[in-house]
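Progress against Task 2.4 (sequence-to-structure conversion) is shown through the following example record, which the project officer requested during the mid-term review.
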Amino acid sequence: MSNRGNEHYTKKAKKEWYLARSAYKLMELDEKYHLLEDVHTAIDIWCAPGSWLQYMASSIPQQEWVQIIWFDLKEVEIQLPWVTTYMQDISDVDGVGHILEQEQIKQVDLIVSDMAPDTIGMADIDAIRCIWLIEKTLWIYDTYLKDWGKFAIKVFMWPGFDELVRDLKTQYGASNIMTFKPKSCRQKSKETYIVKRG
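Structure tokens generated for the chain above:
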């Protein structure tokens, strides 16, 4: 059943011209939490090859001014309305800050992140690396997300997950932080998403 489900989303992505099946994860998150509603500015962290960008660019209502900034260590050759991509380490505070200053962005309505470390098959080490990677990016939420802004962060339900959720609830309010695993995730995968509602 799991393999058939994976194949379904893979075929669906090709048919609908998405660069990866992961687009449907963001689609489900958006349908449940209305992430793209009233969004003018957004930051997308580490989502090569760009399927999340495709979904956002096609789903945010056309307005006079919309801007999506994407950061990754990999180059993305994709041309979309409102989207500017940068090869940039998101943990480089000065580098990211310089780019956003150039783009005249002081705060954003939405931050999404589908990043994950390259796993080595050792659960404890993979868990530590996953949480460490997320923690290296949390500064951007603290610095650039509006008080009523929203986010969706991919995380793995490994050691450290409960502590991360607890810390985010303390910071943003328990009623604003949710966890959700889209149906388009692989059934055996430990991945889920932490969402802050607006």
